[in-house]
Amino acid sequence: MNLMRRHKVVLYNPQAVFFTMPLGLLAVGSDLDPEQVEVVIIDGRLERDPVAAVLAHVDDALCLGVSVLTGAPIRDAIRISRAAKARRSDLPVIWGGWHPSLFGAACLAEAAVDITVQAQGEETLREIVRRLVNHESLEGCLGCTYRTPAGEIQVNPPRPLRNINTFRTHNYGLLPVERYYQLKGKRQLDYISSQGCNFRCAFCADPFVYKRKWVGFEPSRVAAEVEALWQRYRFDDLSLQDETFFTRADRVEAIAEEFIRRRLPITWAGTMRADQGDRLPDRVLQRCKQSGLRRVIIGVESGSQAMMDWIRKDIQLEQVFISAEKCLRHGIRVIFPFIVGFPNETDESVQASLDVIKRLRRLSPDFETPIFFFKPYPGSPITDEAVRQGYQLPATLDEWADFDFIGSAGPWVSPQRYRQVERFKFYAQLAWDHPTPLKRPFQVLAQWRCQRDLYALPLEQVVSRWLWPAQRLS
Q1: Cβ distance 110 to 76 under 8 Å?
Q2: Is the CB of residue 200 less than 8 Å from the CB of residue 207?
Q3: Euclidean distance between CA atoms 197 and 235, whole angstroms
Q4: Phi and psi at residue 188, in whole multiples of 5°?
Q5: Burial of 283 (0-12, 13-18, 19+ CB in 10 A)
Q6: What angle do CA 176, 295, 337 make, to 5 degrees?
Q7: Which end of the chain has fewer surrounding CB within 10 Å, N or C?
Q8: Contact at 8 Å (CB) between 209 and 101?
């Protein structure tokens, strides 16, 4: 590598409605050698004029990297990439993240994009940077897809998942941490301690991207990094963004013990599967609580065991309630996400999910049960089957930019079913929420409705939305 000067790499995070720190960019940016590369991370969510912020750095940049999530962020990614290319036509533009991991070649239909990175990006970006500095071809560079000088699309073989303990410590100095605290309204630091997932859920793209592999930081590294970050940024809460934080009980216990030993004055939240919660010894959960664990997310997806088996969730419904009761005993809040509206899902299956939600909500007002409608996300077996049966996925980047996998339903959901579930979501949340004198009359009515599954003429919903406006999705 040419060491005469440091080479600037600009990394951009597109605009979105949430303010989680851009941990993917932080990971790949931190792993570049700081003695040889100057990394500049620009977050479009934090900028009044994102285009101007990027253009201020591209004149002397080696390349521009953009993290791209399926949906609306694609539109901003295109806008920034085109603006950079208009300023400097020779500037290599690299897309990474979930969408390019799934559609590495298709993303290159956008003329402003030259290279896409698939799956784990640290080592791949490091090699791309080295080759760009030395004016070398990307032929044989594992884990990326690129356009050749002749205009052909070259898809390189995937890069094996690396042990992330070999990567450099994430340099949060690349981010304006205090700005994220302000936008979140709390001193919450986002952190990721592992990558990938061992499981095979048929609605999820993770098995396609990570091939059912999982790698995590050693407990001592997690604890040392978190303590150093707390010393510098004085956060109150640590939000662990791992796909499945509770993958290894011994690792979780060791991290909790380290947090306790270091007397870290923080709370933290992580992700857990129901089968992991079922197997987790009470002593481990108790130590997690003592170390600051305040909340876990346990994906249930369906209240029908038959549907659960069909989507390859590989858990039993009873494990959901065992995990719920454990968390209840230890005073740990839980979010139990559900998905309804799978292709060919029966009315009985949807009703089973609503019944399980009611059972969980009755256990504790600290148990949340958000419901999402299934939308065919690329890379999952259910989506592949839906496509074989005639469902048409978006074909262009512009169409993918309009793809809403949170606020809409697939064609299998009738308007009546959609309306029922949307109303149920409101009443189930209100019925067993923490009571207040003002809410109490509405809660009595909501419980009556839920017990009888009567959701027509939702006058209480209109009044309640006026008294307590719905929070913006984040």
Answers
A1: no
A2: yes
A3: 28
A4: -115, 125
A5: exposed
A6: 100
A7: C
A8: yes
- Give 10-residue mean pLDDT values along the chain (474 residues): 75 95 98 98 98 98 97 97 98 97 97 98 98 98 97 97 97 98 97 96 90 96 98 98 97 98 98 98 98 98 97 97 98 98 95 98 98 88 91 94 84 93 95 93 94 90 68 42
Give the ranges where 316-439 is alpha helix by DSSP (H). 317-329, 347-363, 381-388, 397-401, 415-431
Which H or E run contains 214? strand 214-216
Which pTM value belongs to this model?
0.94
The first and second tokens of residue 181, run together, are 């605290």
Rounded distance, CA 242 to CA 33, Å? 25
134, exposed or middle or buried, with CB in 10 Å at 0-12, 13-18, 19+?
Answer: exposed
Count Cβ atoms within 10 A of the Cβ of residue 471 and give its class: 0-12 exposed, 13-18 middle, 19 or more buried. Answer: exposed
Q: Tell me if 474 sits within 8 A of 18, measured CB to CB.
A: yes
**Contact residues for 31 (Cβ-Cβ < 8 A; gap 6+):** 122, 123, 125, 126, 167, 168
Q: Could you tell me whether strands 61-67 and 7-13 are parallel, antiparallel, or unpaired per DSSP bridges?
A: parallel
Nearby residues of 325 by Cβ (< 8 Å), 6 or more positions away = 363
Cα separation of 127 and 181, whole Å?
33
The rounded distance, in Å, linking the Cα atoms of 70 and 244 is 21
- Contact, 386 vs 343, CB < 8 A? yes
Residue whose pair of structure tokens reads 């950079």 in the numeric block: 84
Distances (CA, A) of 473 to 76, 210, 407: 19, 28, 10
Of the candidates 155, 190, 157, the residue with the CA atom closest to the CA atom of residue 25: 190
- Paired tokens of 1: 């590598």
Which of 317, 251, 315 lies closest to 287, judged by CA?
251
